[in-house]
């Protein structure tokens, strides 16, 4: 039989438990950290893959625009990357062809974690009667190099007038059409 005295002592020593203990909180934090440690590298790899896919598509766009420029204006391939850009508020000319997004054709020529460069190659051609300010080229080299190697991209890309896109696994800049063609094609 219980006495009222022993029952009141038990109630005073036992306090109700509210919330989580420190051990439980530490276990939850450890689980969250493990999930984050697994997810972040996958997220970074996904972002690098997306940036590289965007760079390849932008190279393809520039290459197509260079061919369109050559056939439309009879001025060879464009003298600069800026020649492929321009404002839609004025008509397209061989000086500003409005063929490529101004993000790519305006300095610093960066988009989706890559820097794009375009150089005319293989000598200039005679300026046609259409009134182009600068002569075009017989060839070109367009490159895409990651802004931050290993963060925005792993590989660099290049293309020239055959319109084949090549890649360099080191992510370094490609200096010439010969160096470009020596790389692995996509």
Structural summary, described in words:
The chain has 4 helices and 6 strands; from the N terminus they run αααβββββαβ. With 186 residues, it is an alpha+beta fold. It has one domain (20-185). Strands 1-2-3-4-5-6 form a 6-stranded antiparallel β-sheet. β4 and β5 form a beta hairpin. The longest helix has 52 residues, at 22-73. The relative contact order is 0.13.
Main sheet record: 6 strands, antiparallel
* Unreliable stretches: none
Strand content: 15-25%
Number of helices: 4
Structural class: alpha+beta
Report the span from N to C terminus: 87 Å
In order across it, which strands form the biggest sheet? 1-2-3-4-5-6
Indicate the overall shape: elongated
H-E string? HHHEEEEEHE
Strand count: 6
Q: How many structural units, i.e. domains? A: 1
Relative helix content: 25-40%
CA radius of gyration: 30 Å
**Average of pLDDT:** 88
